[in-house]
Amino acid sequence: MSPADLSLLRHRRAVEAGQLAARGFGILSTVLLVAGAFRIFPVGTPGALTVACLAMIAVMTAAEVVGVVNFRRPGGRQYAWCSAVQVAADLAVMCTFVAALRVYVDITTWTGLIVPIVAGALRFRLRGALATWAVTSAFLPFALHLGGHTVVPGDLAFAILINLIIAFISGTQSGAFARQIGELDEARRALEHQAGHDPLTGLPNRTRLARFADGEHGRELTVLLLDLDGFKQVNDELGHAAGDELLRETGHRIHAALRSGDLAGRVGGDEFQVLLPQTGPEQAADVIARLRAEITRPAALSGGHATVGVSIGAAHRQAGQDLSLDALAAQADQAMYRQKSAVRRAGTSERPAPGDARAHAGPARAS
């Protein structure tokens, strides 16, 4: 997962940690209630209430286990259904708590139903809050009449309305926060892409190429340096806009000619660099041939048509050799310019041999 996605994972872990702590407090409080620590019942905790409390402890403990799974793997496939299990468990526990105390104690307990509503909002936004509110609203008429208690007129409607307000507030705020996280992640991804890619061609830049090469440290690697021959002529005759088009098209063609696992980038002007991991000179020669064939095809530009050549220098590092990308790039650059010099001295557009990694693709022309 990219660094930009870490904010979502941190948010999920924060939700899990908060609910683990709150549920742990609930387990402790229930244990103390059963033990008589709160002195609510003069003659001890009723047997039926003890059974209900033990059942709530068991459900909360199971929910804690599920919560730990989500905390450890917030990006896993199990996260959604584990969240649903926890919301259902919290809902069942709080409904049982409200009903049990309503039977034995004449106190207002329906406010406890706010807990699963907020939990549903944190995990499933507004739809989760409204779903838990609907369940608690259906349960409230039954709970308020338990134990033979008389319900004051308007209490039921007031409780349902208050819970609905809580559901809307918590659900909408949770949704807004989730959207904000998404927007921040998108902005971070865009910044990460800009930091590692050339804005004109969309290919990786020097920074991204260097990171890739660092990952191949100690392994066999071939580095190619490509320079377009005749690019200045395209700029002079067709304009810089056409030159930019040609660079973009060249980037697409280079990418199309590579194998899975190879990486190409633009390192400046009309120069491109290609990294071929696990590749020796013979395999590199095949890639060079494809690159040359792709790049030297005529390109249709907005200002006309252009055909350019390409000079390609190569440097090879055997597995276990301690050669950095900079050192390999310098060797490839020297190989490329030796070929350019040889072609200029010869005064001809010689066609290189298929295995010559320093080949020149012939004279460029713009039309």
Automatic annotation (TrEMBL):
Residues that span the membrane, as ranges: 20-41, 47-67, 79-101, 107-124, 131-152, 158-178
Record keywords: Membrane, Transmembrane, Transmembrane helix
InterPro entries, sorted: Diguanylate_Cyclase (IPR050469), GGDEF_dom (IPR000160), Nucleotide_cyclase (IPR029787), Rev_trsase/Diguanyl_cyclase (IPR043128)
Keyword tRNA processing: no
SMART domains in the record: GGDEF
Span of domain GGDEF: 219-352
PROSITE patterns in the cross-refs: GGDEF
Keyword flag Transmembrane: yes
Region named Disordered: 339-367
Source taxon at top rank: Bacteria
NCBIfam families tied to this protein: GGDEF
Protein known as: GGDEF domain-containing protein
Lineage summary: Bacteria, Bacillati, Actinomycetota, Actinomycetes, Micromonosporales
